[in-house]
Amino acid sequence: MKVVGSREFNQDVSAAKRLARLEPVFVTDRGRPTHVLMSIQAFRQLSGQRESIVDLLALPVAAEVELAPPERWDDR
């Protein structure tokens, strides 16, 4: 677990995000932990949450999938 002060966090958010890919990052304010930054994968594992259909449709690969046109119902 990595601990960074709020000033350090504010000065380099990108570095904190890179660290959070590997382990949770605790952000402190005046030496006291106030926030935790973690990857979405770690959060989902911790909370037991799975990817939703919205998450899956937002993937770049989803844009490349061609769907067949809907069939039309003809009166027969």
From TrEMBL:
Task: Report the family membership.
Answer: Belongs to the phD/YefM antitoxin family.
Segments forming a coiled coil = none
What does this gene product do? Antitoxin component of a type II toxin-antitoxin (TA) system.
- Would you tell me the protein name for this molecule? Antitoxin
Which range is the signal sequence, renumbered to this chain?
Answer: none
Q: Name one Pfam family in it.
A: PhdYeFM_antitox
